[in-house]
Design goal:
single chain, 6-stranded parallel beta sheet, 3 domains, 19 helices, about 450 residues, binds uridine-5'-diphosphate-xylopyranose
């Protein structure tokens, strides 16, 4: 078959490392680049620096097969690759809303001067619309013009916990290109994905479009998902005052295929490294472009999401019979078990985790918080060093006046309310993810509160 391009992935964080490893698995020759020597040493030694199911094994296999290397040298990376994917982070700016593009700038201006033949630079990071044009100018300034280096944009849609599947078997590939050559290069760079799909009798839709649309696809998808979650959480708020049950409401509307039942789980709302920061950056960018009004609803989406955290605090005060003053409830003298620190189950990621925000609020209100998370304790401790971290669910729940289930880990969903009831100080539970079997818990004598439920 035709020669496959050699691929590099700049930035071996969550995104870049996963892509580098999975594309080696698809048969490509790959270099993963990072400026962080410790990270590169770890990956080169066969260890993934974050928690993602299945990735460790793929890393070791592809290192052993010689298809995958890691490097801290721009020169080595530039000489090796035909297609260079920019996978660095675009964090929220310190000034609040917008995205910080300094890592993108560093990667592009580090790589470009070392390029010695025609190559394609592809942005993957989530960025404000307009960034691809800016990267194209940067590349023009920092590479020798007779090489004709080109730029393209190809957003990713990885979900933590499913990242390997999402790279190997994506539900679509989107590319923003300006030339047939770039289009062809990107097709070759994804041929492994299309070939795998063909052997499994699937098709991966390919959307070829312009820079602006490709950039927007990513933030639009995340804005839609965030809106869907906040929509159902808004319905939860209404259910709370009207005496309805949002879990049944969600099921009932979800049967309409135009609505669909996924991402319609009311609870503590969305967190993680993407949705919260992306909807804020999207609003900031729309504002700059003069379309701020079009995305004003995203501000409401954000507020609905944050209000769910306060709701847990209110429920805690209610269950513990504490008054809520102007500064919030006074929970001093109470012991509260917090189950869950990660922003969703099956990850160790606590970035922008609603659960951890609630734990902090409970502690601030004076409660003695004992937290347990199956994977997230270490990361949580780094963010909130002053809580009590326990090594098991039982240790966290011991003598607690209130148990708060804030992340729907299966360990918590399947916990035995009878056994737990024997070790707590008071049988009170807040099921902030609506993930427990209500009848089982009430039968075991617990005072149960869910979200958006009577
Ligand atoms: C998300 C997008 O799904 C992904 O496409 C994008 O590339 C990055 O952001 P991820 O951050 O891994 O992925 O998490 P996801 O599984 O989407 O969950 C996001 C948050 O929404 C979690 O905090 C989760 O608990 C919450 N959520 C999700 C709900 O509260 N209710 C739901 O019904 C679904």
């Amino acid at each position: 078959g035709a020669q496959r391009p050699r691929l590099t992935f700049l930035g071996t964080g969550y995104l870049g490392a996963t892509y580098a490893i999975c594309f080696a698995e698809l048969g490509y020759e790959v270099i993963g680049f990072d400026v962080d020597e410790a990270k590169i040493a770890k990956l080169a030694a066969g260890s993934v620096p974050f928690h993602e199911p299945g990735l460790d094994e793929l890393l070791r296999r592809n290192l052993a097969a010689g298809r995958l290397r890691f490097s801290t040298s721009y020169q080595e990376t530039a000489e090796f690759g035909d297609v260079h994917f920019i996978c660095v982070g675009t964090p929220q700016r310190a000034d609040g809303m917008g995205a910080d593009l300094s890592y993108v700038e560093t990667a592009v201006t580090g790589l470009a001067p070392h390029l010695t033949r025609k190559a394609l630079i592809v942005g993957k990071s989530t960025v404000p619309v307009g960034t691809a044009e800016w990267v194209e100018q940067l590349v023009g300034k920092h590479s020798s013009t007779d090489l004709g280096i080109e730029v393209a944009w190809s957003p990713e849609f990885l979900q933590e916990g499913f990242a390997v599947e999402d790279v190997l078997r994506p539900n679509r590939i989107v590319v923003g290109v300006k030339s047939e050559w770039a289009n062809g290069m990107l097709y070759s760079a994804h041929k492994g994905v299309f070939d795998l799909a063909a052997t499994e009798d699937r098709e991966v839709p390919l959307v070829v479009t312009d820079f602006a649309t490709a950039e927007l696809v990513k933030v639009a998808a995340n804005a839609f998902l965030a809106t869907k979650i906040s929509f159902i959480n808004a319905m939860a708020e209404v259910c709370e005052v009207a005496g309805g049950d949002v879990t049944q409401l969600s099921r009932a509307i979800g049967y309409d295929p135009r609505i669909g039942n996924r991402f319609l789980q009311a609870g503590l709302g969305f967190g993680g490294a993407c949705l919260p920061k992306d909807i804020r950056a999207f609003q900031a960018r729309a504002q700059e472009l003069g379309a701020g009004e079009a995305l004003r609803f995203l501000h409401e989406v954000d507020l609905i999401n944050l209000r769910r955290r306060t709701r847990v605090l209110t429920l805690a005060a209610e269950l513990l019979d504490r008054r809520v003053g102007p500064a919030g409830p006074d929970l001093s003298g109470t012991r509260i078990a917090v189950l869950g620190a990660t922003f969703k189950p099956n990850t160790d990621d606590v970035r922008d985790a609603p659960s951890l925000a609630v734990a902090a609020m409970l502690a601030k209100a004076g409660a003695d918080v004992h937290l347990y998370d199956p994977e997230g304790n270490e990361n949580a401790r780094r963010t909130l060093p002053d809580l009590n971290y326990e090594t098991s669910m039982n240790a966290a729940v011991q003598d607690a006046d209130l148990v708060c289930v804030l992340t729907e880990w299966s360990d918590f969903r399947n916990a035995d309310p009878v056994a737990l009831g024997e070790i707590v100080g008071g049988r009170r539970v807040i099921d902030a993810r609506n993930c427990l079997d209500t009848s089982l818990w009430t039968a075991a004598g617990w005072d149960y509160r869910g979200m958006g439920r009577p």
